[in-house]
Amino acid sequence: MGEYKDIQSIPELSKKNQLGWFRDMKMELQAKGVYFVKEETIYLHFFVSRPLLPIQPGEYDVTDSTDIATGVTTEQRFSKAKKREFEKATAKAMARIFNSTAEEDKSLYEEGGITAAEFWEKLKENYKEADHVISQRYYHLVAHFS
Q1: Domains in the chain: how many in total?
Q2: What is the Cα–Cα distance from 109 to 111, expressed in whole angstroms?
Q3: How does pLDDT run across 100-143, given as a tens digit for each residue?
Q4: Are 44 and 38 spatial neighbours (Cβ–Cβ below 8 Å)?
Q5: 3-state class of 37 per DSSP?
């Protein structure tokens, strides 16, 4: 809990503040070093093509994968440490996002089986305003600026 003392206050996500909310949340997650969970999948994060150093027992999960087109079977290695790192970063990112979303938004994630990236995209879709609404808002601001 003490880790989040220095985080700026981001108001609850709404249709009115959605542009600023996504910008501010992205910057905050980047500052905390966890935004990558929105950009990549767990598979891409912890897949290791070829370890350069000798392998320690228990360091990798190893599976065989067969390419359907060629029939060639290859060994794939997955770093257990990178998997734990990704899961921890996902939890940090989701905790921060949950702190500034409404209960009905949280239920999107609780429906299960979605990643942090998919949750982010669902939020964007739910709060997306029509282009003409955004244009009118900025026109109004510019027209009354003096």
Answers
A1: 1
A2: 5
A3: 998 888 887 776 677 888 889 889 888 886 555 666 766 777 77
A4: no
A5: helix
C-alpha pair distances (Å), 105 with each of 26, 47, 119, 127: 17, 31, 9, 10
3-state secondary structure of 32: coil
Query: How many residues in the chain?
Result: 146
Asked whether the predicted pLDDT for residue 89 surpasses 80, the reply is yes
Q: Is this model's pTM higher than 0.90 or not?
A: no
Asked, for residue 146, whether it belongs to a domain, the answer is: no
What tokens appear for 141 in the block?
Answer: 């601001």
* Domain enclosing residue 137, as ranges: 10-141
Amino acid at residue number 37: V
Cα angle, residue 15 at apex, residues 9 and 18 outer, rounded to 5°: 50
